Amino acid sequence: MENFDSTPLLIEAKALGDSTRFRIFNLIASSTDEVDVASITKTFKLNHNAIRQHLNSLKHAALITERVEERQTRGRPRLLYRLNPEVRGKWTTSGPYLEIAKLLAETLKRKKSTYEIGKEEGKHFAREIHKSSKPQNIIDTLVRDMELRGFRPLKIHNDSKTILKLNRCPFEDVAKIDPDSICDLHRGLIEGMLEGLDSQAKIALIPKFPEFSGCKVELEL
User: Fold this and answer.
1) In contact, 37 and 79? CB cutoff 8 Å
2) Do the Cβ atoms of 26 and 92 come closer than 8 Å?
3) Is there a single domain that holds both residue 175 and residue 74?
4) pLDDT digits 0-9 by tens, 30-40
């Protein structure tokens, strides 16, 4: 029998039971960019060690993710934090169902298909990326976007193609009801993003049952 004390929900609740930690979590969750320790320290006026302890607790509860900054210049790379995509929609954060509800509402309002609306959203995301600089690797940029949307992508190289296996569907409940519309929305998102990044890649989306996940995106550059 599973120990209730070790269930993910209770682990998350315990981690957020501290008021300061909950405020740090909200700061990270509401940020559009990754957050470093220095910016958190400046906001809460606590020492680095205290902030790191709070971050470790949030990371242990799988509420946030941590990565080491990639940099070409001198200096110690920073640790960067953002909301775990799979926590979206919990603990006062906006989630994937709010996102998809807005997109589906657009299809009704503007009398467009889910594919068309998805493609427009993908292009918009690409324009946001272009504001800073054009990505060096478009496939890695796409993988990063799929990670942030909660798809758990796995990149597989196969001859001249790159295959992204999506190990999770963040819209599983809706996809069970209308898989064609949701798959068309995803295909539009990916094609719009690639087009917005000036990529000539050809794409094929191979859907699976949403409850088992495992949909594949085939990209041929």
Assistant:
1) yes
2) yes
3) no
4) 987 889 999 99
Nearest to 67 by CA among 51, 54, 53, 83: 83
Are 108 and 192 within one domain? yes
Rounded to two decimals, the pTM is 0.71
Query: Is residue 111 located within the same domain as residue 66?
Result: no
How many domains would you assign to the chain? Answer: 2
Q: Place 55 in a pLDDT band, splitting at 50, 70 and 90.
A: very high
- Tens of pLDDT, residue by residue over 110-166, are 999 999 999 999 888 888 766 655 666 788 888 888 888 888 899 887 777 888 888
Give first-to-last CA distance, the chain, whole Å: 49
Q: What is the CA radius of gyration of the chain?
A: 19
Range of the domain at 34: 4-87
Q: How high is the mean pLDDT of the chain?
A: 85
Do residue 102 and residue 188 come from a single domain?
yes
Per DSSP, the three-state class of 164 is strand
Same domain, 145 and 185: yes
Q: 203 has which bridge partners?
A: 219
Helices (H), 134-178: 138-148, 172-177
57/140 Cα distance (integer angstroms): 29
Same domain, 71 and 161: no
Last residue of a domain, one of 65, 87, 109: 87
User: What angle is formed at CA 198 by the lines to CA 120 and CA 165, rounded to 5 degrees?
Assistant: 75
Farthest CA pair distance, the chain: 54
